[in-house]
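Protocol step 4 of 5: obtain the predicted structure for the target chain.
Materials: sequence only (see below). No template structures provided, no constraints applied. The aim of this step is simply to have a reference model before the mutagenesis design in step 5. Sequence pasted as it appears in the construct record:
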Amino acid sequence: MFPTLYVMLVFNITMDTDNFQNVRKLLTMSNFVALRNDVVPALISQFESNFSITITEDAKTVRDVLNQMSIRVFQAYVRPTTQKAKNIIAAGIASPNYAPSDTRPTDAQPYVYEVLLLLVLTHTEVSRTAPSMTSSILSYLLEQLSQALIDAFKLRPRYTLSALMQATLDVEFIAQTLNNYTTERAGEFQGSIYLALDERTDNEARLKLQSELPEMRAILKRLREGTRGEFVCFKKVRGPAAAARQSGQGQRPGS
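Step 4 output (structure tokens):
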């Protein structure tokens, strides 16, 4: 019923301690989701059919317990990556060299690439171990990145035109690269980011930014094409089998 449990024994022999802990969390989480969504409902249905009774409340209790256990494992897995990403973002945006002084930015800041490469490693680990969880974990991490961007941008008191362009370039590059994992909440965060930036700039910079947008779109397109190989794992997976793996099977615990 749970072949992944056998895989855990194999990984215990071949992986170092930190990696094994992550793999164990992923496999445990995947098993909890399978229990909640498939195994337990089937067992309850069979029990009710065989004994001609209804156990609605008991069934709800079992699902709630499994859900809570799954949430705890989910948080234990994503917490270190979330904190590391927040630290990277905070340090990058707080840097005194965050934006060019007078010129138009031509690339995303280094912290953007560092965070995205961190997610590449996470994507690799999850997709190889518990592929049905890939979408839910990456979507959650994107939401956390978006919140971290808001918090970090709010710490800067003012944005010149060049800083405003740099922030816009960074935010859009992250959003476009991780577009396949966006959620309604992540979209709301992105809107809040632009609101925070707008509150910390002046009308002259706002107007000039509008005239810079066509060139910034061209820069973004060039950056996306130039990093296609590095971030190819974030592209939408084609084919019915892959689509099934990115479907509701990977529903986030608690949803």
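Step 4 remarks: Confidence is low (pLDDT under 50) at residues 1-15, 240-249. Residues 4-250 form one domain.
Proceed to step 5.
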